[in-house]
Amino acid sequence: MVFNISPAKRIEGIDKNVWIEFTTLAAEHKAVNLGQGFPDFSPPTYLKEILSKLVVNGDEMMNQYTRGF
């Protein structure tokens, strides 16, 4: 079965977004890309402790969402 699918007209010309930047940089630096999805392993203890402190101290900027266009 062949599908003729093309992007919506409203996104023509938009070829950059934060996900493209994350993926490109992660590949370039051989880093773990946490920009999309969730890891399938537990983070190190020191990182969990730091994140716990950030959450407890009420850092409102702490979330999993990126800025929109």
From TrEMBL:
<keyword id="KW-0456">Lyase</keyword>
<dbReference type="GO" id="GO:0070189">
    <property type="term" value="P:kynurenine metabolic process"/>
</dbReference>
<dbReference type="InterPro" id="IPR015424">
    <property type="entry name" value="PyrdxlP-dep_Trfase"/>
</dbReference>
<keyword id="KW-0032">Aminotransferase</keyword>
<dbReference type="GO" id="GO:0047804">
    <property type="term" value="F:cysteine-S-conjugate beta-lyase activity"/>
</dbReference>
<dbReference type="GO" id="GO:0016212">
    <property type="term" value="F:kynurenine-oxoglutarate transaminase activity"/>
</dbReference>
<dbReference type="GO" id="GO:0005739">
    <property type="term" value="C:mitochondrion"/>
</dbReference>
<protein>
    <recommendedName>
        <fullName>cysteine-S-conjugate beta-lyase</fullName>
        <ecNumber>4.4.1.13</ecNumber>
    </recommendedName>
</protein>
<dbReference type="InterPro" id="IPR015422">
    <property type="entry name" value="PyrdxlP-dep_Trfase_small"/>
</dbReference>
<comment type="similarity">
    <text>Belongs to the class-I pyridoxal-phosphate-dependent aminotransferase family.</text>
</comment>
<keyword id="KW-0663">Pyridoxal phosphate</keyword>
<comment type="subunit">
    <text>Homodimer.</text>
</comment>
<comment type="pathway">
    <text>Amino-acid degradation; L-kynurenine degradation; kynurenate from L-kynurenine: step 1/2.</text>
</comment>
<keyword id="KW-0808">Transferase</keyword>
<dbReference type="InterPro" id="IPR051326">
    <property type="entry name" value="Kynurenine-oxoglutarate_AT"/>
</dbReference>
